[in-house]
Amino acid sequence: MVSNQLTIGSRGSKLALFQANWVKSQLEAAHSGLKVVIEIIKTSGDVFLNAPLSQIGGKGLFTKEIEDALLEGRIDLAVHSLKDLPTVLPAGLSLAAVSRREDARDAFLSNQHRSLGGLPKGARVGTSSLRRQSQLLRLRSDLEVANLRGNLDTRIRKLDEKQYDGILLACAGLDRLGYQDRIVERLSVQELCPAVGQGALGIETRETDDETRNRLQCLHHAPTHSAVTAERAFLRRLGGGCQVPIAGHAWVEESRLEMLGVVASTDGHHLFRDQASAPAEHAGELGSQLAERLLASGASNILNALSP
User: Fold this and answer.
1) pLDDT in tens, 11-28
2) Does 106-187 carry CATH code 3.20.20.70?
3) Is the pLDDT confidence value at 48 over 60?
4) Quick one: fold of 1-100+200-220?
5) What does the pLDDT look like over 161-197, one tens digit per residue?
């Protein structure tokens, strides 16, 4: 018997709930009579709010508890910011749909300065991401990078309290919550290569739940899926997560995928960058091969040094 109700598992932050409610509205609009409810689930990443992600991180920091609920049958689908979803999913779960990607770039926010380049020497910039830290210090080794945790509202509040001269956040989250006017500068992917999956939503289900998987196809965006497949293959081959300064971004250009990959030391002194392309149907191979090229060029030394 086909169920007329689905339960979404989501973190409780304003952004996570916005994303879950967007999925809810899309599903209910596409399937007449379907009722979708949201269950808030607290993850480890929501509990340990002060320590840097690189210190408390591990794969699944923002997803494990939600995936447990999915495996136990308490929820039918999980809505994740795809950048938070590990590249290897627990047995029995699968990535059923990937939404059309929003702006994948990083944003610079400041109340006194109109560009990242315009920051004075020694200015304090907040970020919780080693990926952003490493590339920022590569661009501006004269800046002080300070840890910045909390949900989006909390991070902006800390900027307004003058704890930082500027902060770095994802454009997509700011756009989704209507904070576009707080963005001083949208940084190009060449300046600050985004996190793997940044800007897209990943919707996870049980592998055996064909009914839910079929319903989710109304949300699936094939070009974004091709791009993030390459990115996730890249990250999987490098073995990284929140604890490692790895960046990867792919995009479709005339039926081909272009991909940029970056591996950097946390101080920005050493940075390996490469770009490659392939037909969109070979997305996984593109990501893996680009990772191999970076490893061969010397990125393996950085990753080995950061391994626990």
Assistant:
1) 999 999 999 999 999 999
2) no
3) no
4) D-Maltodextrin-Binding Protein; domain 2 (3.40.190)
5) 999 999 999 999 999 999 999 999 999 999 999 999 9
Task: Please give the Cα distance from 43 to 59 (Å, whole number).
Answer: 12
Contact call for residues 204 and 220 (beta carbons, < 8 A): no
**CA-CA distance, 216 to 114, in Å (whole number)?**
41
Domains 1-100+200-220 and 106-187 share a fold: yes
53 contacts 242 by C-beta, under 8 angstroms: yes
Q: Where are the alpha helices (DSSP H) in 4-79?
A: 14-30, 44-47, 53-56, 64-71
Alpha-carbon gap, residue 166 to 112, rounded angstroms: 8
121 burial (CB, 10 Å; 0-12 / 13-18 / 19+) is exposed
Active site residues: 84
pLDDT band at 52 (very low <50, low <70, confident <90, very high): low
CATH 3.40.50.300 fits 221-308, yes or no: no
Of 185, 63, 197, the closest CA to residue 118 belongs to 185
Query: What distance in Å separates the CA atoms of residue 87 and residue 89, rounded to the nearest whole number?
Result: 6
Tell me whether residue 249 is exposed, middle or buried, using C-beta atoms within 10 angstroms of its C-beta: 0 to 12, 13 to 18, 19 or more: buried
Show me where the domains of the chain are located: 1-100+200-220, 106-187, 221-308
Strand order in the sheet with 124-126: 144-146, 124-126, 166-170, 106-109, 185-187
Of 288, 192, 282, give the one whose Cα is nearest residue 232: 288
**Lowest-pLDDT range of 36-40, 52-56, 216-220, 264-268:** 52-56
* Residue 201, phi then psi, degrees to nearest 5: -100, 135
Query: Token digits for 219?
Result: 């949300």
Q: Answer yes or no: are the C-beta atoms of 227 and 267 closer than 8 Å.
A: no
Report the distance separating Cα 111 and Cα 105, nearest Å. Answer: 20
Query: Can you give the pTM of this predicted structure?
Result: 0.92
